[in-house]
């Protein structure tokens, strides 16, 4: 978003006037990413939409850098601050009115023939689904090494509580409060298979085994990775959490839900 850089520059000027170092850059800027990973900053302000916050979470969680989001996007499920409000919230931050919310992340390991060939962190979800071919995929899910069920479906979502308001919600899954540390399994368009979402016990893990061709792995909506038959995608709770700077009542989440649930209709002609 070009306007995100304009807004970010205004924020940087505001912070520098108070004597703070506040560089501005893209989340794809390798020099800035390196400084975040080295722990040079106390906080990252993500200016944009939920996608920007997801990318910030991937970057910041391993370094324990809290994220404060300012919404320039459309929905902003993950963001508490609107673009018109940031000055007031910055002052509240300086006055010590903020608190830190920890959100569980997932770790997805791609296993082929017993060898790990890739690993990713997810804040929202891990999806094993069909690729460009319209045929459904066949998947078998194991929970804590015990067989759960097999699916013939467009895919299977393993989501966090954060992700329960993203793809999992669109696929018919329940909404989980953000403090829960449970994995949510939601099938996508299952055919003659278990069609209900399953909330796993806290601490449980899931292994998704591919039983057909044409499957792909996607983590937090990133470009898909092709999977082969008998590949495993092992999903566990990550040992890092995404930290978000929040203000006011911890019950803000429920207010956000009621505010956002009908927003997809806002852009339609009346």
Structural features, described:
The chain has helices at 2-16, 30-37, 50-60, 86-94, 167-170, 252-260; strands at residues 44-48, 67-71, 81-82, 98-112, 115-122, 125-130, 137-143, 146-153, 155-159, 184-188, 198-199, 206-210, 215-219, 225-227, 232-247. It has two domains: 2-97 and 248-265, Rossmann fold, CATH 3.40.50; 104-239, Tumour Suppressor Smad4 (Sandwich), CATH 2.60.200. By secondary structure, it is an alpha+beta fold. Helices cover 21% and strands 36% of the residues. Strand 7 (137-143) and strand 8 form a beta hairpin. The chain is built from six helices and 15 strands. It has a six-stranded antiparallel β-sheet. Residues 266-270 have low confidence and may be disordered.
Average per-residue pLDDT, rounded, comes to 93
The CATH top-level class label of the largest domain: Mainly Beta
Under the CATH scheme, the architecture of the largest domain is: Sandwich
**Overall strand count:** 15
> Topology as H/E string?
HHEHEEHEEEEEEHEEEEEEH
Question: What does the overall shape look like?
Answer: elongated
Number of helices, where a helix is a run of at least 4 consecutive DSSP H or I residues: 6
Q: Beta fraction of the residues? A: 35-45%
* Residues in helices, as a percent range: 10-25%
- Secondary-structure-derived class: alpha+beta
Largest sheet: 6 strands, antiparallel
Q: What oligomeric state do the depicted chains represent?
A: single chain
């Amino acid at each position: 978003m070009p306007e995100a850089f304009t807004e970010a520059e205004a924020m940087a000027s505001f912070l520098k006037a108070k004597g703070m170092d506040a560089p501005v850059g893209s989340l794809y800027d390798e020099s800035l990413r390196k400084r975040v990973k080295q722990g040079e900053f106390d906080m990252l302000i993500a200016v944009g939409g939920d996608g920007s916050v997801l990318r910030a979470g991937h970057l910041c969680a391993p370094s324990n850098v809290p994220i404060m989001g300012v919404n320039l996007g459309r929905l902003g499920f993950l963001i508490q601050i609107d673009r018109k409000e940031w000055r007031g919230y910055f002052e509240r931050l300086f006055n010590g009115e903020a608190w830190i919310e920890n959100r569980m992340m997932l770790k997805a390991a791609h296993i082929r023939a017993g060898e790990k060939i890739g690993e990713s962190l997810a804040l929202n979800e891990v999806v094993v689904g069909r690729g460009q071919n319209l045929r459904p995929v066949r998947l078998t899910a194991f929970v804590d090494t015990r067989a759960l069920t097999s699916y013939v479906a467009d895919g299977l979502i393993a989501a966090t509580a954060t992700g329960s308001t993203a793809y999992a919600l669109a696929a018919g899954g329940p909404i989980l409060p953000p403090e829960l540390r449970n994995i949510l399994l939601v099938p996508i368009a299952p055919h003659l298979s278990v069609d209900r979402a399953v909330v796993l016990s806290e601490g449980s893990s899931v292994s998704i085994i591919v039983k057909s061709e044409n499957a792909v792995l996607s983590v937090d909506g990133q470009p898909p990775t092709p999977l082969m038959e008998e590949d495993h995608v092992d999903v566990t709770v990550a040992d890092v959490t995404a930290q978000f700077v929040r203000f006011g009542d911890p019950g803000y989440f429920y207010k956000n839900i009621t505010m956002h649930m009908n927003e997809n209709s806002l852009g339609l002609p009346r």
